[in-house]
Amino acid sequence: MSTAITLHNITKRYGDLMAVDDFSLKVERGLIFGLLGPNGAGKTTLIRVLTTLLRPTAGDAVVEGRSVLTEGKEVRRLIGVVPQENNLDRYLTARENLALHARMHGMRPSDYNRTIDELLELTGLSGRQHDFPDTYSGGMQRRLVVARALVHKPRVLFLDEPTTGLDPQSRRAVWDYIQTLRATMTIFLTTHYMDEADLLCDRIVIMDHGRPLVDGNSSQLKEALAHSHLYDLEFRDGADRYEALLRGLPFVESLERSGNLFRLALTGEEALKPLMDAIGSEDIRKICLREPSLEDVFIELTGRKVRE
Amino acid sequence: MFRGAFSIWRRDMLVLRRSLFSELLAVVAYPLTLYLAFGIGLKGYIADVEGVPYALFIAPGLISMTAVNAAFDESAWSMWFHRRVQHTIEEYRVNPITVYDIVVGKIMSGFCQGALKGVAVAVVIFLMTPFRFSFPHLLAYLVFIVFGSMIFSCLGTICGTTVDKPENLGRIQAVVIVPLIFMAGIFFPLSSYPAAILPIVRALPTTAIFEGARQALLRGTVTAGYAAILVVTAAASFALAVWIFNKKIEG
User: Fold this and answer.
1) In the predicted model, what is the mean pLDDT of residues B86-98?
2) Which residue of B has its CA nearest to A12?
3) Alpha helices in chain A (DSSP H)
4) Residues of A in Cβ contact (< 8 Å) with B92
5) pLDDT in tens, B161-189
6) Predicted confidence (pLDDT) at residue B251 exceeds the cutoff of 70
7) Is B149 exposed, middle or buried (0-12, 13-18, 19+ CB in 10 A)?
8) pLDDT bucket at B1, cuts 50 / 70 / 90
9) Other CB atoms within 10 Å distance of the CB of residue A258
10) A106–B15: do the CB atoms touch at under 8 Å?
11) Which of chain B's residues have a Cβ under 8 Å away from the Cβ of A91?
C-alpha cells in the first residue's frame, strides 16, 4: 500500500515547551488514521504542521509526495482541513462559503456549482443553502465545514476533533458522513473520543508529551491490554466495607468504584481464588472478566491525571 | 496570479454590497456635520484662508479624510475580526494561496471602501453645498486619494494583524491616526505652525495626502515632494504589512 503521509522526525518547540518531540510516522493511502491523545499531547500541533499552518522546529513532513516545508502551496492544493473550531464566514451564506473556498482553489463556477449542489445534498443542507451559518445548529455548522473541506476533492482530509461539542445525533451524522468518504481519500483524524476512534479508524496511534506511545488497529491495542486482568465486581450490600477490604489486598493493582460496582485489575489469574476467599460470596451480585476497551488502553498509557 | 487576493476582495465587496446603504449613510454623516459646523458655522468669522474661501478650503480634506479613515477602518477591523473572531484567516491559509494574496486582498478591500466612501461624501458635499471644483483637476486629486487610501489600508492591516484586543484598535485610532490626520492641516493652513516644526509637519505622510490633495483639487497642481513621500510611504507600509502578517501568522 503506498504512503499518503510521512513525518520525518518532526519536532516543534514553543520556547521551553516541547509540543512535538522527534515524531516519525507513515500513513498508508486510503486509511482512516486516528491520532489520539489527552489535551496538550501535541495532536493539533502535528495537524497544523501537516496542513502547513505551522513550521516545525526540525524535521519535515511529506503529504502525497509534497514537502510541507518547500511545497506548501502544492500540499494545500491536495488537502482538505476541518479545524477544531468552526471557522465559517458568518457574513456569507452556506453556499457562498463553499463557493469562496472553490474560487480560492482556482475552480470555475461551471466546475464548482455542481459539486456544491452534490455536497449540500449529501450533508442534508440543500434546503438551507441560502441561510447564514449563524442560524445553523452546531451539527449543521460542522457538516458545512466538512462539506467546505471537500469542495475541491482533496486526496487527504484532516479532521481535528470533528465532533467535539456535538450532541449524540449530530456526532452520528458526522460519523456516517466520514464513513462514506472512506473509499475516496485518506483521512487523518484526531480525537479524544474513544468510541469515535474505535468505530471509524483503521489504524490508531496514541500519543502523549509529543511522542507516539502505541500504534495499531483498535483490536491490536485492546489485545495489548488483554494480559491485564480486569474484573467488574458488584455487591448487593456493604460496598463501603468491601472497598476498604479490597484496597488492602496486595494483588489488587487498581480499583475504581461506582456505587456498588467495582472495577478492579488483578495481578494475575492466580489472584482470583484469594480474592474470592477474602470477600466471600454472600454479598456478591455479579463478578465477571471484562474485555479491555480502547479507553482502558488510553488511560493505561496516558494516566488518569486531568490535563490543563 | 493573485487569484486568492481577488477572491478575498470579491468576498468583501459582496458583504459591503449587502449593507451599502447603511454604511454610506453612517460614513457621510460625520464629515458632512464637520463641513456644516466649520464651513458654514465659521464662515462669518473666517472669510478665507490664503485666498481660498474657508468652506472650499476644508472640503477636499474632509473628502480625503473620509477615504483614508474608511480604508483604515475596513482593513484594521476586518483583519482583526477574521483573525480573532471568525478565524477565517486560517481557512484562507489552508487553501493554495499565498500570504501576499491575503494581505493584498485586504488592502484592496480597504482601498475600495475608502474610495467608495470618499466619493459618496464628495457627491453629498457637491450636491448640498456651494463647493465646486474644476473637473480636470480631479485626476490629480485621485492620485493622492489612491496612495492615501493604500497607505491607511496597509496601516490598518498592520494594526489588525498585531493588535489582539479590540479596545486597543480604538485607542490606536484615537492616539495615532486622528492626531496624524488633524495635524495635517485639514481645518487650518500649514503656515499656522511655528517655523521650527513646519518641516516635520510637511514630512508627515498625512500632510502629503491632505495638503497635496487640496492643492491638486483646488489648483490642479501635483507637488512632486508630496507625491514622492506618498509613493515611498505606500511602498514601505505595504512591505511592512506583508512582513508583519507573515511573522505573526507563522507564529
Assistant:
1) 93
2) B251
3) 43-50, 72-78, 94-104, 109-122, 138-150, 168-181, 194-200, 218-224, 239-247, 272-279, 294-302
4) 104
5) 999 898 999 899 889 888 888 888 888 88
6) no
7) buried
8) low
9) 10
10) no
11) 15, 18
